[in-house]
Every structure is written in C-alpha cells, then in structure tokens.
Amino acid sequence: MKRSTVLHIGFDDTDSRKGMCTTYLAYKIVEYLKKEHVKFLDYPYLIRFNPNVPWKTRGNGAVAIKIKTRKPEIVKKNIVQFVKKYSAIRDGANPGLVFYKNEEIPKSFSEFGKMALYKLVSRSYAKQFAMENGLEMFSFGNGQGLVGAIGAIGYNFRDHTFELISYRNKINFGRKREIVKESVKKMQKMTFPRTFNSFDDAKNRILIAPHGQDPVFFGVRGEDVNSVIKGASLVRSDEKIEGYMIFRSNQGTGDHLENELDIADLKPFSSGYIVGKISSKPQIEKGGHVFFSITKENKTIKCATYKQTGLGSVVSGLIKGDLVKIGGGIRKASKNHERVLNVEFLQVLELEKDILWVNPLCLRCKKSMKSKGKNQGFSCVRCGSIATEKIRKENPRKIKKQFYLPVSTAHRHLTRPLQRIRKFNTKLHFDKSSNWFKHQLC
Questions:
Q1: pLDDT of residue 442
Q2: Contact of 439 with 166, CB cutoff 8 Å
C-alpha cells in the first residue's frame, strides 16, 4: 500500500479590494480535500502578517493547511486549479502558493514567518528561500503572495486564537449583509470573555461583518473552538449561509508589536515598539489628530494618534519627561510629511510631576496676588500684603500608569484586546471531528 505523505500547503494574496477572500479559497479547498478523504493534522491556519505593508488588501492574512495524503501529486495539481479559479487575479491579486512535503517544519521557516510580521519581505527573497528549502512554488501576477504563503506554513504560535468564518451563497455576493444587531450584542455579553471584538457598545456597531463584496458573511473570534461555535449560533439573520470553517489564528495576539524597533534605524512600514521619553508637548492638529515626539538615546521620532482611534484624549495628557512604551508602524516620509510612528498602543511606564509656578496666595485674603512688575514681587490688591517669589504647585495628572488601546472599532486584526492582556493560549488539542468545518449540503 502506498505510504501517506505529510503535505503543508500555504497560499496568500488571492483577494483584491474588489472582492474574493483568501479564507474562502481555503474553505473551498478544504471542501475538496474532505472528498479526497485526506487526514487533517491541524486546524487551517489564518495568519495575519505585518499590517503596515503598503500593498495589503484588507487584513493581510495568509492561510496554511497541513494534511496527510496518499495522493500528494493529484492534490497539488487540483489545488493549483482552485487558486486559479478563486483568485481575483484580473482585479490585481498576486497569488502565491507553496507546497512542502515533510513531517517537521525547520526552524528557518518560523524565522521567515516572524520576519514577515515586522517588516517588508521582498518577493525575490521569498523565491530564494523557497528554492533553498525545497518548497514547490507557484505564483501569479507579481507573486507577492509567496511571502505570506511561506510564512504561514511555518508560523510558530506563541499564542493563538480561533475564528469561525461563515460564507455566503454566491447569489448573495455583493448584497448588503442583514444581521440582527441585538443578537450580536447579546452574543458578546453571553460569551465574554471567551470571544472578543464582536460588538462596539460605545458606537452601537457590529464588528463581526465586513462591508465589501467578498464572500464572508461574518466571523466570530475567540479563545477556543466551542466558544466561537456557540457565538456564531447566537447570531441572527434571515440569510442562509453556504457554510463555515474554523481557523487557528494569531489574531488578537499583538504579535506584530513584539519587535523592538531601533530608533536610530527606523525602516518604513516596519512594525514594533519603542520605549522612550516624551520630548514634545502633544499638539492637536486639523481633523482632531494628535502628534507628539518621543526620544531615546538622543534620537527622536514623531508619533501620531488619529481621531478615529480615540487615543487623542489620552495622549493629550502626556507631558515632557513621561516614560512610555509606544507600539505601532512606521509611516514612510513624503514631500509633505516627515516619518511618523503611527500609534497602535500606548503604555505609560513612569509619570513626571507636572510642576507649575504660580503667583503666591495672600494668607489673609485667600486670593492670588498680582505681579508688581518684572522682578518687583507680588502684592495683594485687597490688603496690600507682599511676597517676593512665585510658589511651586503640583498639578494632578489625569493620565495613569497603565496600558491604553484604541477603541475597538479601530482595532487591527492583530491588536491584542484588553481582555487578552497577559492571556496566552499555548496548548492545542486538534479536534478531528467535523465541528470545525460545516457545509450546509454535507
């Protein structure tokens, strides 16, 4: 009998801004693989890479699938056809597809995936890596998807979450998604804290559904498979879905901001964090955006918080000398704008005392004295009492030593929500039952 082969499948950049979705391609591939009776060795991976790359479509997500099959060549041939059929190549998608036949993933693959979280990785480097490491690769368009495809199959989870993504029937592609808002609100209350980022109470807004023409109906993110299944079951709509699939993911882990940026060598579009001191008073500019600067080792970088993040009121309370940890991405300098660190989180580590020098208080009248002129001291306009110097006053700080995030509507896929701070899922039990995949015709 022919021996089974462990096959790792990775693909990325199959969607465009006009439609389609890499996870939907994964759903169709898994549907096919189940008919081939392959053995699945893990949940499909949905890996979000550096959200600051300039050519990403929506979530910059790549997919990997790990199987065991006796027909690897037939499987590979058919998956290539799926990528051609379900990729938006005519609308600008640049798919990359890789296959790797081996039970173990070398450490170099994990290092590649980690690098793709923080910085720009070139197509040429991805192709070179594939050739040197025995990866079989296919690409279309300019092949930018090879980066995510390689990074996904070797991704090393220091933490993981799950997402159940439901898919629409083809006749509903492009139509407005009709989901009962109160059902999502109720779902979040019933499943919290095992699910996250489903509903924004402050803005009374659903967060589980996209707005484009892609095949995704909604997605529920959470800590385990049972929680996302329960959450999805509570969502109400008259629309009948085609099916759903559950992905193991790095969403909600903040992994892209674990990299310490070198303030002396900040690369455009890189992601990470810097610890430094506030060196300029935050300034509110047109549109409600707030800008300030931090300094480390005599090097300075301008930081930006945008109005939609809701962080403006927080950073406005910073003063020169405060020690902070800033996480975010580096925006490339242009003719009109200098290089900027776009803030994704703020952690206040130490607060300076906000000292003010004010006119002295008349002890008799309990009123602030008036200046008599430069270097001439102060006097009380009521009783005539005099004083020679201003007095030192400490202004209470409104900002606290704590961790601050944007409002949930401004979270990126990778943003670690407050409920997940210091929470890590490191153990995994792959449930081989059919619960993680459901096609309504099955």
A1: 42
A2: no
Q: From CA 291, how far away is CA 352, in angstroms rounded?
A: 19
Query: What's the average model confidence in pLDDT over 298-303?
Result: 96
Determine the angle formed by the axes of helices 225-233 and 181-191, rounding to 10 degrees: 150
CATH of 255-351+397-413, one of 3.30.70.920, 3.10.20.30, 3.60.70.12, 2.40.50.1010: 2.40.50.1010
Lookup result for tokens 């793709």 = 116
When pLDDT is averaged across residues 56-68 and rounded to a whole number, the result is 86
Q: Kindly report, residue by residue over 330-351, the tens digit of the pLDDT.
A: 999 888 888 999 999 999 999 9
Residue type, 313: S
Q: Which CATH architecture best describes the domain 5-156?
A: 2-Layer Sandwich (3.30)
Instruction: Give the domain ranges of the chain.
Output: 5-156, 161-249, 255-351+397-413, 354-395
* Cis preceding-peptide flag for 51 (omega within 30 of 0): no
Rounded to the nearest 5 degrees, what angle is found at the Cα of 15, between the Cα atoms of 10 and 17?
150
d(CA 61, CA 299): 34
Above 80 in pLDDT, residue 427? yes
What are the backbone dihedrals phi and psi of residue 189, each rounded to the nearest 5 degrees, phi first? Answer: -65, -40
Per CATH, the number for 161-249 is 3.90.600.20
